[in-house]
Structure formats: C-alpha cells, structure tokens
Specification:
Elements (H helix, E strand, L loop, with lengths): L4 E2 L8 E2 L16 H5 L13
Parallel strand pairs: 1-2
Length: 50
C-alpha cells in the first residue's frame, strides 16, 4: 500500500499540494503482461482519513 497525503501539512511524508483543477496521474514502472493484455486496472482510491 502507498500512502499519499493530499493537501494538509507540507511536512507530511508524500505530501502533494492540491490546487483548483488538480488531477491524479498513475505512472507504470516495469509493466507486466497483464497491463499490456488489458486485464490490469488501476485500483479505486480509498479514503482512509479525513
């Protein structure tokens, strides 16, 4: 699992500043056959704290 902090305190690990019209981009490193074959999908983000 990867934890990313959107907004909040810039002192947090993996902090990303949020601004109007922001979006998220997923980068694929060393894609496997599932990616190229179309069976891999981006997981739905889950809010774990507010």
């Amino acid at each position: 699992m990867v934890v990313v902090h959107f907004g909040g305190s810039a002192d947090q690990e993996n902090y990303l500043d949020i601004y109007e019209s922001w979006n998220a981009t997923f980068r694929i490193y060393s894609p496997q056959a599932e990616y190229f074959g179309g069976s891999w999908a981006v997981s739905t983000p889950v809010l774990v704290a507010n």
